[in-house]
Structure formats: C-alpha cells, structure tokens
Design brief:
Blueprint (H helix, E strand, L loop, with lengths): L4 E6 L4 E6 L4 E7 L4 E7 L4 E6 L4 E6 L5 E6 L5 E6 L5 E6 L3 E6 L5 E6 L4 E7 L4 E6 L4 E6 L4 E7 L6 E5 L4 E5 L5 E5 L5
Antiparallel strand pairs: 1-2, 2-3, 4-5, 5-6, 6-7, 8-9, 9-10, 10-11, 12-13, 13-14, 14-15, 16-17, 17-18
Length: about 190
Amino acid sequence: MERKHLLVADVQEHLAQLVDLQIGRVIATVVLPGRPRWCLYRPRDASFLVNIREPACVVVISATSFSQARSFPISASGPHGLALSQDGSRAWVACDEGFVVALDLETGQELARTPVAGLPDVVWHNHRLNRLYVAVAKPGVIEVVNTLTMTVEEQLATEPGAHTTAYDEQGQRLYVFLPSCQALVYEESEVN
C-alpha cells in the first residue's frame, strides 16, 4: 500500500486497471490478452501477477510503469487460483484442467505440475509449513499440496460446492465456507 493503488481486473473488457485510492479514479489501464482470473501483488519487484484463463498464462504488470513487463505461458488450461512464495520467487497456479503448476518467477519456467481432485478455485500458501491449500468444489475437498515435493499429502473433506476459503497465517487456520451456510475451520497442529 505504499503507493495507495489498487489493481482491478475487468473480466468483461479484459483489462487491468490501476485505481488511485486517494482520488478514487482509474489512473492507468493495460489491455490483457484474455479473461483475467486471480491477481496478486509481488513486492519483490513491485509487480502484479494476473492469471489469464485463455491463452493460459500469467501476465506480469509493472506497478511502477503500469505496463505489461512479461508473460509466462502455463501448460495446463484455465489458470485460476494463484499463490506466491514468501520471497516472491515462485508462484503456484491452480488450473481448471485439474493441475497445480509451480512456476519460477525469475525464469518463467514451470518447475512441476501436480494433479488435484477436480477444478480448483481459491488457493492459499502456508509459508511456515510449505503447504498449498487448494479448494476443489466438486467433489468438495481441500487438497493439501506439499510445495517442496509438489505432491498431495492430504485431502480434507468439505462439502460439494465449497470453494470459498480464507486463510489466517498468524493463527494457522483455514476457513472453508460451505453452501449449507456453515463454515469449517481447519487448524494446523504442527508449526515449524
């Protein structure tokens, strides 16, 4: 928030817009190569990462010049959920094709790709435990991916249709909001 700017991804017009929060207006626009999905800010190089559904890629936008700096192709279709390593060197991209792709953000190379139980949605990275929590609405599970080995090490049952989650890094809790108007709370018991 040092610049007090916010990235807004327009899924209708395929735009990324930079909003100045102090004046409440769009101050810059970038045309994206396709429909944007998840977006993140990367402090390491003051850039925004934007998942693009088709063509399957991650677009990097400079927060300084607000221009597209580069684009990394993704081998699985439909990039959706996006998470970043603590140091900003790696990203994990959950794709509609049913894979999570590990991406080196310095080289743009895919490091690994692991299958998950279905169409993934939201992902959260637990920096302390090197775990990625991947929400899969159908069949209704959270896939827990070890980000060092890129293997699914645990599957947590939720409820069919559950794909909205929130992660509390401080408390080591994952909240899963269920279609039945309930919430599940998973708490990590082992902290490194």
